[in-house]
Amino acid sequence: MSKFNKWMFVLFILFPILLFLFGIGNSFTDISKLALSEDDISIDIRHKFFTDKTNQLSLNDVVDKLDDFDELPLNKAKVSFGEIGFWYQIDIKNVLNHSRELIVFLDNSMIDIINVHQLKEGEYKLVRSLGDSNLDNIILDIALPNFNVELEAGQQTSFLIYTTTTGAANVPISIYDSENFYRYKDAVYLLWGAFIGIVAVMSVYNLILFIGTREKLYLLYIGYIAIFLIELATVHGYGVYIMSLPLFDFFSKNIISINYLLGYFTLMFASHYLKFNEEPERKVTRYVNYLSYSYLVLSVISVFVVEYIAAQIFFSLQILLYGLAVTMMYTRLKEGVKWANFYIFSWLPLLVGTAVGPLLLTGNLEYSFWSRHALLLGVVFEITFMAMALAHRLRTSENDRLYQASHDHLFGFANSNSLEVAVKGLTEKSNEPSFSIMIVSISKYESIVPYLPKESLKSIVYQFVSDVETELSNELLLIDIDKDSQYMKMAMIREGVFAFLVSSNDEHLLNNVMSQFAAQQPITYNSGELSLNIKCLIGASTYTSRINNTNELVNKAQQAIELAIGNGNLHGIYNDHVNNNDQRKVMLASDLQTAIEAGSLQLYHQPQTSTSTGMVVGSEVLLRWSHPNYGFIPPDEFVRIAEDTGIINKLSEWVFNKSCEHLVELMKLGIDNHIVSVNMSVHDVMHNGFISYLIRTIERYQLRADMFVLELTETVSVTDTKKFTRNMLELKDIGFCLAIDDFGTGYSSLTYVSKHPFDKLKIDREFIKNLDQSDKDFTIVSATIKMAKSLGLEVVAEGVEDQKTLTLLKSLNCEWAQGYHISKPLPFEAYVEWLDEESIKNSFS
Questions:
Q1: Where in this chain does the record put each EAL domain (predicted)?
Q2: In CATH, what number does 588-835 get?
Q3: 659 vs 22: which has the higher pLDDT
Q4: Cβ partners under 8 Å of residue 40, min gap 6
Q5: Which CATH architecture has domain 414-574?
Q6: Residues with Cβ < 8 Å from 581, sequence gap 6 or more?
Q7: Please, are residues 749 and 784 in contact by the beta-carbon 8 Å criterion?
Q8: What does the alpha-carbon distance between residue 249 and residue 274 come to, in Å, rounded to a whole number?
Q9: Who contacts 9 (Cβ-Cβ below 8 Å, separation ≥6)?
Q10: Could you tell me the sign of the dihedral formed by the alpha carbons of 825, 829, 835, 841, in that order?
Q11: What is the model's pLDDT at position 200?
Q12: What is the mean pLDDT of residues 675-681?
């Protein structure tokens, strides 16, 4: 759609709205003219005003002071807060040559006492008692305080009106012909009804949204407009129609408490709408919370404080409320948050209405239909704009969720979902599509991560992806995966692994390109003083009619990489040999599940000793599997299969159960203080029922949680960090000791260690095996141990192959050691014999 057409569309939508608003404006202006003015030729009106600051003068005392009254135009009297009495003298003369019925309207339903005295036979006599302290009046007189005046042709009468209240004391006075008053009343009823209807519809709509999204924001919005409904019901008087009279009287006497509640919901809604509640560490968020809870407390306190005193405190705090609201809105605008605009716009009519209301009720603004209903109209527009803001935010949030579902949260790259959409588009366009997927994987990416700050890591990865795309584009036609991204030709399968769609299935061409690219390895990148030589592995798979889905295509390319690694190469294309390997994995997956159920796996123990005493303090249990056809299966291979096929939790449960059996056997042999270290994966920690399983199992064997160290091995990154942290803390509370395994080779980093409740840190054997020969490894291990000590963590070193390494570790204050120098992993029976031969049973007593 062109810009011209867009503008035409906007005007087409806006024109009827503007026309409707123009008509409403004219109608309201006409309604405002229904009242008789002092310069009307059909009536003669004189108005005088007197303030009784003691509020103790009797009617006779006031009559004696009539000469002290100030003659003022109608509604020009200045009033103030306090327990003060105000007297109005109104003389009305009918200039017409026929009788007429007039209605004097006293437009403030919150006035406590309104006593109307009429001059009859030379004396002022009480003719009406109005005000919200007199609930015996009919509902109309409570909602719209008024009294009738019947005048014959040329007749004149005089009224003395006494008012007093603990709240807003101004009483706007309007005089109508009776017919016009009822027209005015009908218009006001229509406005009230429309407002109540809007609030009801918005409340139901947002309740539905809350039920659907469970987002507290929508409840806060309902609370906000509901409190505004109550406040305006009290201020304008329509509350007598929608609530019981005692309840209306309660709200009327505690209007400041309602205002405090309104302030609370205003701040809370702003905080949640602008998502500051998700950033509790920010100063503005803390200030918003402090003021919000102060409003709640003051709302209760104000019930016991005289209204005019409570009002002064409230108006002072309003400055803070508006200041915080403006700060939040300005911050989000500066940050470029799209959905903040509508919300900011919604404040404009509210600010106008909020300013007009107090000015009118204190007599500092001229009374008219517009000014009287400015706050109500402002709230109507605010609610409308706020609803638009909520809809816009919901739509934007939905778009953000869709974006997050199709993009990596850290780098912003398109992910496998976007790749799947792109592949689906290619297969739908042609019956015989010709394309391939090329996977580029950074070698030992996990080892790089712990040594780079987040921004440096992102910078290097961005540069790497750009370099790969440029290199491949020189020889191949790459297909767009995410057209809205700067890196439109690429999708990230997982961190360090990237996929490219190639518009060719020519294996010879693909092999030549991969070979040329592999020959350029390594690629050097600099981050500060650190220089990184990055190698990458490349695999490709061509699309055929036998491919069922994108995941299969990606998996085949990754299998090509695994096969290439096995052959000592950096690149490879999926072929039938890989297919045979795929069949092996399928068979292993099936047989592994059978082995778990049959209990045909084996659990080995490798002892862990104290570097200071040489005593055995425990052992790590290691899983072994001897397949009837394939023989010994490396743990890395079948653990990965278990993760890929979703049976990793069953495997971990089997390991933990077997560990408990072994520990019970050791205790029967008199070895009471033996600590068993059990490997767990992120999948286990994130599994809903796993923690319950651990508890049930140790209770069944009558063991304690502190007899176990759960070593967390990271084969995948954590996506739901909140759940992961919560589960880790629960394991800690139960009593399990938590260790991070293979530090420096997985997703582990200093940030990862510091944010989770680990007790031990296990240094990977890659850094230990050459400790006495490599200065670099020695520096890394030394720094890691110092860092662990500063965080209160014990350190375990695995892969100790000789006495010299053990001595170095002791000098570096590493507490625990494990490796072939102490003992190789042993089956349980052999491990028990080893313990007996070493005669160390007494070390556990």
A1: 585-839
A2: 3.20.20.450
A3: 659
A4: none
A5: 2-Layer Sandwich (3.30)
A6: 559, 562, 563
A7: no
A8: 36
A9: 1
A10: positive
A11: 92
A12: 92
Q: Which amino acid makes up residue 643? A: E
* Contact present, 809 and 800 (Cβ < 8 Å): yes
Among 804, 802, 800, which Cα is nearest to 768's?
800
The bridge status of strand 737-743 relative to strand 760-763 is parallel
Question: Which pairing describes strands 675-681 and 708-713: parallel, antiparallel, or unpaired?
Answer: parallel
825 backbone dihedrals φ, ψ, rounded to 5°: -60, 135
**DSSP-derived pairing of the beta strands 794-798 and 760-763:** parallel
- Contacts with 531 (C-beta within 8 Å, 6 or more apart), sequence order: 524, 525
Using CA atoms, how far apart are residues 461 and 453, in angstroms rounded to an integer?
Answer: 12
Give the range among 376-385, 625-634, 756-765, 825-834 with minimum mean pLDDT. Answer: 376-385
* Helix H or strand E segment including 185: helix 178-213
Q: Mapped to the 3 state alphabet, what secondary structure does 242-296 carry?
A: HCCHHHHHHHHHCHHHHHHHHHHHHHHHHHHHCCHHHCCCCHHHHHHHHHHHHHH
Determine the Cα–Cα distance for residues 180 and 65; give it in Å rounded to an integer. 35
pTM given for the model: 0.54
Query: Do 157 and 118 form a contact (C-beta atoms < 8 A)?
Result: yes
Question: Which residues contact residue 452 at a Cβ distance below 8 angstroms, ignoring those fewer than 6 apart?
Answer: 460, 527, 530
Q: How confident is the model at residue 749 (pLDDT cuts 50, 70, 90)?
A: low
User: What's the pLDDT at 718?
Assistant: 57
Tokens (6 digits) for 489: 């030709």
- CB-based contact 799:764 (threshold 8 Å): yes
Q: What pLDDT is attached to residue 9? A: 47
Euclidean distance between CA atoms 231 and 228, whole angstroms: 5
SS3 522: coil
Rounded Cα–Cα distance for residues 165 and 112 (Å):
5
- Please check whether residue 104 is in contact with residue 173, taking contact to mean a CB–CB distance below 8 angstroms: yes
Neighbouring C-beta atoms of residue 490, cutoff 10 Å: 24
Read off the DSSP letter of residue 144: S
Percentage of the chain with pLDDT > 70?
87
Fold classified for 43-183: Immunoglobulin-like (2.60.40)
Residues forming a β-bridge with 44? 93
Determine the average pLDDT of the residues in 395-405: 69
Helix 648-668, helix 828-837: angle, nearest 10 = 30
The rounded mean pLDDT for the chain is: 84
Q: In the chain, what percentage of residues exceed pLDDT 90?
A: 32
Which residues does 56 contact at the CB level (< 8 Å), separation at least 6?
85
Question: What value does the mean pLDDT take over residues 130-151?
Answer: 87
Site of tokens 């739908």: 428
Q: Could you say which DSSP state residue 840 is in? A: -
In the structure encoding, which two tokens stand for residue 18, read together? 């503007």
Residue found by looking up tokens 């395994």 in the block: 741
* Kind of pairing between the strands at 602-610 and 490-494: unpaired
Place of tokens 């976007």: 418
Report yes or no: 147 and 117 within 8 Å, Cβ to Cβ: no
Q: Is the pLDDT of residue 399 over 70?
A: no
Whether 291 shows a pLDDT value over 90: the answer reads: yes
Query: Which architecture, in CATH terms, is 185-402?
Result: Up-down Bundle (1.20)
pLDDT digits (tens, 9 = 90+) for 82-115: 789 999 999 999 999 999 999 999 988 888 899 9
**H, E, C per residue of 785-836:** HHHHHHCCCEEEEECCCCHHHHHHHHHCCCCEEECCCCCCCEEHHHHHHHHH
